[in-house]
Amino acid sequence: MKKENKRSRRSLAWALVPISLVIGILLWTALVNLGGLPAFILPPPALVWGRFQQALADGSLVRHVWVTLQEVVLGLFLGVLAASALGYLLAKSRRLERALAPYVVASQSVPIVAIAPLLVIWFGPGLFSKVLISALIVFFPVLINTVVGLHSVPHDLRDLMRSLRAGRWQTFRLLELPSSMPVFLGGLRIGATLSVIGAVVGEFVGADRGLGFLINVGRGEYDTALVFVAVFTLIAMALALYGLVVWLETRLLWWQHKPRETNLVGD
Amino acid sequence: MNFYRNEMKQTLLEVQKLSATFTDHAGSLRVLDKLSFEVMKGDFLCVLGPSGSGKSTLLRILAGLVRSNSGTVTIKQRALHGPQPGIGLVFQDANLMPWRTVLENIALPLEVRNHTNGTLTRAKRLVELVGLQGFEHALPHDLSGGMAQRVAIARALVQDPDVLLMDEPFGSLDAITRERMGEELLRIWEMDHKTVILVTHDISEAIYLADRVLVLSARPASLKLDLKIQLPRPRRPSVRYTREFGKLAARLRAAIEAENHL
Fold first, then answer.
1. With CB atoms counted within 10 Å of each terminal CB, which end of chain A scores lower, N or C?
2. Number of domains chain B contains
3. Is A169 in the B-facing interface, judged by CB distances under 8 Å?
4. What digits encode the pLDDT tens for the residues B149-185?
5. B119-129 helix and B145-157 helix, angle to the nearest 10 degrees
6. Strands B78-79 and B70-75: what pairing?
């Protein structure tokens, strides 16, 4: 009885998503019509939809999506790999943490937009510079969460492993990895959405393909509908990545009690 | 009977002039001061002391987790340097891994030691020993505090240690569960008379469980009283209401009160 009640409430919650989308599109249309805005300022939803179908039909959208997707996935992978490896070392050695802390913080306080041109100069306008920029922006939150996650491993459990004379690898595999996983995955969530931003920033600075490039083209040609298409595609991409991480969490953290209340973190 | 068994006992663990000092930015703190005692094989020893005395430190040294500053600990005539496989440790909180089932938590020590043969059989036997049949595949957050602590005891026993070290194992349980866990512990102990060193600040728990109670002085801890508990075994809960029990409690209380400057 109680369960059914909960389920019907949940399906109601899901119905809210399309409803709010429909309302949003209606408001958007009304704004264009009532405000008498020209299409190059704010194209109506119908025009954007048409432009989307056109870009899909001539294959250009798929081509650009593929480029950006490669940058994002590779950047995320590289960033997570580097951040978790360094994070492990920092968590293990207080001295190393102290020595590298200024660099780590500095790497975060330099706006990525400011160093993106440098990276494009150094590594060319191709795939690699975008992957690097994406990896850089992913790096910090994943690093921090790796360190915090490892520091949050309960002391008593560490003592237990020590009393069992567990080796470094055993301690990592049996204790540190599963114990720090929730915090680590929190960092991965942030990293996943940031990786898209990193790739687009890279494409803005210098590229001849990708969704960021497409936005630049659309702006130059006053094809505002195309800009909207590219932006929405990017949003979809970020949402998909985020959803993937949330799915990963439900698979990896099945043992957690999770009375999660916000829809931002998924169910 | 009890007396006869004592005659045949041999020393399992020997602590000699053990001192420990902790140093941090606030200065140094002497926790143990030339503490000496020995434990016979098969003895159930309780260490009693005012809160803040070095009880837990003593246990952590015996477990090989903390280094002493001077003095020696020998187990089976061998000096202790760091953690040993012959020691089972039970913490104040159950200290289970929340992502492992009851069975997997109990099997952890065997897994760490790369036992592959018979791990499951042995873990299952211990599930039965602590009376948790039916909960093999439950996760720790589905267990009550008493059940979780049973799992912790089973985990400590799974590699058949020479000594079981217990640091206020029932300290975080409510009074009723606490007494029941004491009875449960004795039931398990009666099966193989493993050597147990249990730290507690509960006088009646100490008398009920122990063959011998050591009272530590306030910090820095030295040996204040070494009291044999000659109550007959196996002990029933009703032993708590006997005159003999009351007398022992009075003696221990006096020894502790004299140390409690709070």
1. N
2. 1
3. no
4. 999 999 999 988 999 999 999 988 888 888 889 998 9
5. 130
6. antiparallel
**Separation between Cα atoms, residue B212 and residue B120, nearest integer Å:** 35
CB atoms A164 and B87 under 8 Å: no
Mean pLDDT, rounded, for A4-11: 66
Q: Tokens representing A22?
A: 């429909």
Dig out the tokens for B247 from the structure: 């007398």
In sequence order, the 6+-apart residues with CB closer than 8 A to the CB of B102 are: B127, B132, B135, B136, B137, B138, B139, B140, B143, B151
Cα A40 to chain centroid, rounded: 30
Q: Which helix (H) or strand (E) segment is B15 a member of? A: strand B11-24
The residue among B59, B80, B112 with the most chain A CBs within 10 A of its CB, best to mutate, is: B112
A156 and B97 in contact by Cβ < 8 A?
Answer: no
H helices then E strands: how many in chain A?
A: 11, 0
Chain-chain contact of B95 with A157 (C-beta, under 8 angstroms): yes
Residues of B in contact with A257 (CB under 8 A): 141
Dihedrals φ, ψ of B156, to 5°?
A: -70, -25
Q: Tell whether B240 is covered by a domain.
A: yes
B85 chain-A contacts, CB cut-off 8 A: 165
Residue B18's domain comprises 1-86+196-262
* Interface size between A and B, measured as CB pairs under 8 A: 51
Q: What is the pLDDT of residues A159-191, one digit of tens each?
A: 999 999 999 999 999 999 999 999 999 999 999
- In angstroms, the separation between the Cα of residue B98 and the nearest Cα of chain A is 7
Is B79 part of any domain? yes
Nearest residue in chain A measured CA to CA from B84: A163
Please report whether residue B227 resides in a domain. yes
Only one residue has tokens 């102990």, namely B189
Q: Would you say residue B148 lies in a domain?
A: no
All structural domains of chain A, each given as residue ranges with its CATH number in brackets, are 60-265 (1.10.3720.10)
Q: What is the CATH number of the domain that holds B205?
A: 3.40.50.300
Q: Does A159 touch chain B (CB under 8 A)?
A: yes
Residue type, B177: T
Measure CB to CB from residue B65 to each of A163, A170, A256 and give the nearest one.
A163
pTM of the model: 0.85
Pair A142, A75: CB distance under 8 Å: no
pLDDT in the model for residue A200: 94
Minimal C-alpha gap between B134 and chain A (Å): 19
- In angstroms, the separation between the Cα of residue A257 and the nearest Cα of chain B is 8
